Amino acid sequence: MKRMLKATTLVLLLASTTTAQWQKKPYKEWSEKDALAVLNNSPWGQTQTYTDTSNMFDVGRSVNSSARREAEVPEVQFRIRFFSSKPIRQATSRLVELKQKGQVSSQLAAQLDALAAANFPDYVIITVVVEVGQSGSLMGSAASVLDRQSTSQLKQETYLLLTGGKRVFLAEYQMPRKDGLGARFVFPRVVDGKQILSPEITEVVFHSSLNAGPELSMRFKVKDMTFAGSLEY
Questions:
Q1: Which residues have a Cβ under 8 Å from the Cβ of 81 and sit 6 or more positions away?
Q2: How confident is residue 52, by pLDDT bands cut at 50, 70 and 90?
Q3: Cα 201 to Cα 44, 116, 222, 232, distances in angstroms
Q4: Is the pLDDT assigned to residue 73 strictly greater than 80?
Q5: Is residue 139 pLDDT above 90, yes or no?
Q6: DSSP 26-84
Q7: N or C, which end of the chain has less CB nearby within 10 Å?
Q8: Would you call 232 helix, strand, or coil by DSSP?
């Protein structure tokens, strides 16, 4: 039991140390690892992983061969991110900069700075990116699932669930573009004259039942979403 407690404490300390690194450093000093941690495993960005999608996606035909199913053991990762939060946009900007390997033009630099600094006073935007682990017919269907959605199809079953059971429903869905940011799920930021998130709200759950696709459900702790002294979402 003591060993288990020590191991748990060590994990918590390591997690705290990791968080402190990108909290303390300006985003333009983040490494690729720092930026990816913000995008995929942080208070603003989480990953929902499926390892068996055989009954998850409507591919228009049945898979009859058990051998084929075994050959297509898919792993699908849905990267769910509060894109309207500064940390996510700063991490996105930093990754683009790092991939340019010092060859960032003045025009691109200005665009990246604007992306990182922009404000979203009216809307909350959650982006979802699908990453697949291998090729195959099932994987192709998984990769294109976000291209087959629409606002009308998603509106009733896509919402932000707040502490106490209140739901903030989807305002607009935008399919993925060529910018690599993924699909946009747009929600109102102010409802009944109040910001939807505040220190009194302990958690928010993003929920979406995709049409002919899986159910996405990701929980975010509001108390951890403070960045540079502000609640970012």
A1: 39, 44, 45, 46, 88, 126, 127, 128, 129, 182
A2: low
A3: 15, 26, 7, 13
A4: no
A5: no
A6: -GGG--HHHHHHHHHSSSSEEEEEES--TTTS--SS----HHHHHHT---EEEEEEETT
A7: N
A8: coil
